[in-house]
Design a protein that fits this description.
alpha/beta, 42% helix, five-stranded parallel β-sheet, 5 helices, Rossmann fold, globular
Length: 130
């Protein structure tokens, strides 16, 4: 069951990756929830718009992370979106940043770097939604 005080939502289709990121971030003192597809991510953000950070995979089983990012932006929620992907081309990176992503990390990444980026996102002043 999702927590009402979730700081970070992780969206990744790999159960192993979800578990690893959630476990490490929770041990770092962060409140985390996770889903495995875009539809569930969009529903989560609708129900919990106060979520501050979304860690978003590019390739999801039901849609691209770009579609999820677009949906988040269009629906008035303003979390910091950290993209994680194994497909880190310049074209994909540029599309995410143009769509409002806050950070972009290529898999495999240093898990300590993810913790640092998440903490930075949580303490960074909130921007106005586009």
């Amino acid at each position: 069951m999702p927590k009402k005080s979730t700081e970070i939502l992780i969206v990744d289709d790999s159960e192993e990756m979800l578990w690893t990121m959630a476990n490490v971030l929770e041990k770092a003192g962060l409140s985390v929830d996770a889903v495995t597809n875009g539809k569930d991510a969009m529903e989560f953000m609708r129900r919990y718009p106060q979520t501050q950070v979304v860690i978003l995979n590019y390739l999801l089983p039901d849609m691209s992370g770009l579609s999820v990012l677009d949906h988040i932006q269009q629906n008035g929620t303003c979390p910091k979106v950290i993209v994680v992907t194994a497909y880190g081309t310049d074209e994909i990176r540029n599309k995410f940043f143009k769509g409002g992503a806050w950070a972009f990390m290529e898999k495999p990444f240093d898990i300590n770097q993810l913790i640092a980026v998440c903490k930075q996102a949580l303490t960074h002043n909130m921007a106005v939604c586009p």
